[in-house]
Amino acid sequence: MKKQIFLLLAAVLFGTSFAQAQRKVVAVSPVKTSPSIEAAAQANGTLRSLQRVTEAIDGQMIDSLNGTRKFEVVARSDMDALMEEGGLTGKGLQPGEADYLVVPSIDDFQDFVETATFGGIGKTVQKRRIRLGMVARIYDVANGGKLIESANFQLDNKDIEQLMDQSVRTGSFSDELLRKIAEEMGDKTANRVVDVIYPAKVIALTGPQATINRGDGTGIATGQMWDVFALGEEMIDPDTGESLGGSEVKVGSLRIDRVTPKFSSGTLTENFGVIKGSVVRPVN
Fold first, then answer.
1. Domains of the chain: residue spans and CATH
2. Rounded to two decimals, what is the model's pTM?
3. In the structure, what pLDDT confidence band is assigned to residue 3 with cuts at 50, 70 and 90?
C-alpha cells in the first residue's frame, strides 16, 4: 500500500514538473512585403533580390528561434507540407495552438551599385550596397491576440561587395550579401522575441561568479558587458490601467567569460545586491 502511494505521489510530482517545464509555442508567419516595396523593386530591377532575401529571412528566423532553445517553433510557411505529410501517413496532423505569434514585415529594401573613382590611379570600382528594414510584431495569442511588442530593425551592409565587371554587365549578382543580411536579421528578431517573453536572469551565484540563462545562439559572446537589475513593484499606467511591468534598479555589472549551449557565466565587476532571479540586459 505504501509503495502504491509513493508511486502515485511520484507520478503527480513528476507530471507537475513536466508540465511546468513545457516550452511555450511560438508561431512564425511568412515574411510579408508591402506592395509599395515590391513595386519599387520591380521598377528598379531588384525584385529578384527582394524575393531572395525574403525567403532567406523566413528560414533564418525559424532557425534562430529554434537555436535559442526557449520555444517550440511552428513555421506557418511549412504548414502546407506538414498537413500533407499528416494526410499521407494517416496521422491526421493538425496545427497546434500557439502561445505567441511573430509577424515579420519588410518595409524598406534597397539594392544598388555605387561607383567610386580613384583619380590618382585612374581606377573605377563598383560596389554593391544593400539596405533592409523590417518590423517584427509579437502577439500574445494565448491572451486574446494582444500586441506585446513591435520592433523595428534596420540593416545596412558595412562590408561592401566589390562586383566583377562581368557580373555588372550580366546583372548576375552574388547572393552572399543577401544571405548574410538575412542571417543577421533573423538573429536580431529571434533575440528580441526571447528578450520580450523571457528576459535573461541570474540562475546561479558563486562568489563573484554569476550564471545566466542565455546560451549559444542567443547573441551572447565572451567579453560582453551586461547590467544586472533588481525587480521592484509593478508599475501601472494611471491613464489606461495597463501594467507597464516591474520597476528596475541596477544592482551590478556582469562580464561574460564563458558561453555554453544552454547557459553562460561571467564575473560580477560590480555587485550592489545581485541575487538569483535578478534580470540581466546587455549593455548597448
1. 24-197 (3.30.160.150), 202-282 (2.40.10.410)
2. 0.72
3. very low
Q: Residue 158 and residue 271: Cα distance in Å, rounded? A: 37
What is the amino acid identity at position 175?
D
Q: Comparing C-alpha atoms, which of 152, 140, 179 is closest to residue 49?
A: 179
Kindly tell me the sign of the dihedral angle through the C-alpha atoms of 37, 42, 47, 51: positive
Distance CA 44, CA 112 (A): 9
Q: Phi-psi bin for 96: left (phi > 0), alpha (psi -120 to 50), beta?
A: beta
* Residues 57 and 134: beta-carbon distance below 8 Å: yes
Positive or negative torsion for Cα 199, 143, 97, 10:
positive
Retrieve residue 170's grid coordinates.
550580366
**Biggest alpha carbon distance in the chain?**
95
SS3 call for 284: coil
Q: What kind and span of H or E run contains 62?
A: helix 47-67
Instruction: Using the predicted structure, report yes or no on whether residue 222 has a pLDDT greater than 50.
Output: yes
Which has the closest alpha carbon to 178: 233, 263, 123, 110?
110
Residue among 69, 38, 80, 73 nearest 59 (CA): 73
